[in-house]
Amino acid sequence: MNRSEKAAVVAKIRAGAERAVIAVVADFKGMPVEEMTRLRGKLRNSGAELLVVKNTLARIAFTGGPHEVIKDHFRENCAIALGLHDPVAAAKAMTDFAKTSKTLVLRHGSLDGRFLAAEQLEALARLPGKKELLAQTLGTLNAVPTGFVSLLANVIRGMLYALKAIEEKKAA
Fold first, then answer.
1. What is the structure's pLDDT at 42?
2. What DSSP assignment string belongs to 30-98?
3. Tell me, what's the pLDDT at 81?
4. Distance set, CA 65 to CA 55, 90, 114 (Å)
5. Residue 53 contacts residue 13 (beta carbons within 8 Å)
6. pTM score, whole prediction
7. pLDDT reading at 129 higher than 80
């Protein structure tokens, strides 16, 4: 690889890292191509991408960016997953795949410039995703007016029952 090709690779990695909200580094030593393809597909479905690059190029690309805290931790065979939208979805995809894979091992990551150990990535993966959190929030917000309407309806219903009882008593 000549100097201009390396510069292009570094620029591509840097651009991806600048857009990413999370970066997850994993060891993939000995992973078959079919398994790597499945991992890439799973990450693509969760809004992330997987990069496999030389460690020196990764160190250069991550220097000065939002995920600079992991640049000194690239060793041996590294796969870097960059979550572009939802950090929980990317962490969940990597963690779930690591549970079923014999070769993929989570090492560390970076979330908004903070270093995350493998245990912290697994804890992040256990959180509900962005869509689930929005659904829970909307459900909670919807419960307040629904409860208020039910309360008012019960007051009016009680008054109607009283009026109906008075009407029946006068009719009898």
1. 92
2. T--HHHHHHHHHHHHHTTEEEEE--HHHHHHHHTTSTTGGGGGG--SSEEEEEESS-HHHHHHHHHHHH
3. 92
4. 16, 19, 12
5. yes
6. 0.72
7. no
